[in-house]
Structure formats: C-alpha cells, structure tokens
Amino acid sequence: MQLVTETPPLLRLSGLRKEFPSARGPVVALEDITLSIARGSIHGIVGRSGAGKSTLIRCLTGLEQPTSGTVDLDGTNIPALTGDELRAVRRRFGMVFQHANLLDSRSAADNIGLPLEIAGWSAAERRARVAELLDLVGLTDRADNHPGQLSGGQQQRVGIARALATRPDILLCDEPTSALDAGTTRQILGLLRDLRERLGITVVIITHEPSVVREVCDTVTLLADGRVLESGAIGDVVADAAGQLHRDLVPLPPLPLEHDGGYIEVALGDTRSGTTSVDAVLALLREGGVPAEVAAATLETIGGRRVGRIQLEVDPARTGDAVRLLEAAHLAPEVAA
Ligand SMILES: Nc1ncnc2c1ncn2[C@@H]1O[C@H](COP(=O)(O)OP(=O)(O)OP(=O)(O)O)[C@@H](O)[C@H]1O
C-alpha cells in the first residue's frame, strides 16, 4: 500500500470540467475534478447513476473533449491531442465492459486476436501473443471455444485478454463484474489483481458495487453530482467515520422493516478519531445511564485497517441522550432512519 501511494502518478486530472449543451441550458457533468492515479495501482471510481463516471472515463480516453482542465498521462495532456497522436494515446488504454461483447462467429482465440489484426500484426506474431494472453487469463484449454460455449466469467476473461492484447498501460474496467454472480466476481477481481502483480499494469475500475472496491482497490474516488466528494487510499477513507465511503464500504445489515426509531450506528475499530470496541461503546452508554443492545455489528480488515460499524438499539425515548453521550466521545453517531 505504501509503495503504491508513493509511486508518481501515471494519470493526473486537474480542474477538469465538462459541460453539455441542452435546450434548458448547459448541463455540468463534471466540475473541478482533480485526482491522481498511481502507476501500478488499482483505482476505483464510484458514484450513483448520473454522478459523472462515464463522462470522466470518456474524457480520460480522449473520446470526449473536456470544457476545461487537463488530463495528464505521463506528461502528455490528452485533451490537447488530435489525429494520429490522439489515436496513439488511446491505444495506451485497454477497455473492459460489463458485457464482453464478443463476436459469436469467432473462437475465443480469434476474439482475443482481433485488436492485433486491426493493428496489422502478422499471423505468426498474433498466434504467439494470443497463446500468451490465453495463458495469462487461464483459458488455454478454451482457445477454440466460441462465446456460446463459455460461461459469463470465461467470456469476461476473453474480454480482458482482448483488452490487454496490444499491451496497454491502463486497463479501464467499466462495471466489469455487474453481470456476474458473487463467486465469478471474486474470480475476475482475483484475475485483475493478479494481472496488476504480473504485468505492473494500472487498473481503473468504475463500479457501483462497494464489495469490488473493498476487495481489490488500493485507492478510490467517490463522485457525486460531477464533483469529487472523497478520494484516497482505501485504508484512509474507511477510517473517516463521518465519510460516505466509510458507510458504503463497511455495510451493516438493513434495519427491521418496521421499527420505532431507536437505532443508532457508530463506527468501530481503528478510525481517525481513535480505536473503539463494542465493549467500550456499550460501557459508555451504560455508564451514562442509557442501556443499549447490539442489533448488528461488523468488523473487518479493509486496506490494512481494522474497521467496522455497530448498530445499537436503545429506548427510542433515550435516542437523544445516547447520541449526546456518543458525540461527547467523538464517535460520530448516526440515528438510523
Ligand atoms: N451527451 C450528453 N448530453 C447531455 N447531458 C449528458 C450527456 N452525457 C452525460 N450527460 C449528463 O451528465 C451527467 C453525468 O452523466 P454520466 O453518464 O457521466 O453519469 P454516470 O455516473 O456514468 O451514470 P451511470 O452510472 O448511470 O452510467 C448526467 O446528468 C447526464 O445526464
């Protein structure tokens, strides 16, 4: 983790703004986006629908011209490029999508080789590279299968191999596991981590799934309404008990459908405000004269940091007292609605 955050950024976005014209005036899709992505890191971009994730990716890859700001890739400002230079820089990005969108008429090997054909590689060079790529994604024995003979996870592996064919520096993955079940998702995330280790490639993952970020990302950016709301190393963002990413990445089970309002949530573990245990929270409330019970709790290691959340049930008439006691101890309580 330390190594990843200390290496110089491969991508640096600065003051990025994107406006779209519309009949009702300009729509601001991105506003003052400044963030860095370290070489060899796995960076997650999260945010609700409409937050600006797709627009950001399109600006990164030069498919969309930002209204202002810079996208610096290794010292090259992508929005300033045109023609051949822009086409060359686009080849430094490999794209993986939710659905692999493979050609049914072609075998796995021939799907993987397609970008090499387009780039003018000879048949012999293609064969050697495709064999390497099939091995890299663990599909050597499936080379001759057509997409219809492959599972969803295997198809996604072919999609990843195809994205890596021309040796890009950055693998941009747009919701790569959204169409997959939990087990297959873990395998694909394991593959992405493995590729980063073996190839040193930088991976950017757009996702709405907090579990993806928890499992595989070193750093993360939360977008909301076109702005960066939070950004940083996973261990740091989960330690900010008042932050949105802390709540998203350290989930608790939902509250009972019908309840009388006596539920309070508090961060546990090694947060920025100190270390908190379940026992300490319960003792604090008991000593303050507000009995509480644990309705749910979670504690896990994320980004090398032990963090969690606890859901407390208190007498609804004493919720305010409980909140005051917890606030006095700097525990950032939240009354669960
Ligand atoms: N070509 C366009 N013309 C006008 N408005 C656009 C255009 N593209 C995006 N927008 C607007 O910009 C904002 C950000 O959209 P964007 O598609 O980047 O969000 P997103 O986070 O990728 O959402 P989703 O997860 O649903 O794909 C939205 O308000 C959207 O309506």
UniProtKB/TrEMBL annotation:
Organism in which the protein naturally occurs: Janibacter limosus
A GO molecular-function descriptor: ATP binding
Record's protein name: ATP-binding cassette domain-containing protein
SMART domains given in the database record: AAA (SM00382)
Functional note: Part of the ABC transporter FtsEX involved in cellular division. Has ATPase activity.
Entry's Gene Ontology cellular component terms: plasma membrane
Known partners and oligomeric status: Homodimer. Forms a membrane-associated complex with FtsX.
InterPro entries: AAA+_ATPase, ABC_transporter-like_ATP-bd, ABC_transporter-like_CS, ABC_transpr_LolD-like, P-loop_NTPase
Keyword set, alphabetical order: ATP-binding, Nucleotide-binding
Taxonomic lineage from the root: Bacteria, Bacillati, Actinomycetota, Actinomycetes, Micrococcales
Family of the protein in this entry: Belongs to the ABC transporter superfamily.
Residue ranges annotated for the ABC transporter domain, each copy included: 11-250
Pfam family, one: ABC_tran
Alphabetical list of PANTHER family matching this protein: ABC TRANSPORTER RELATED, IMPORT ATP-BINDING PROTEIN
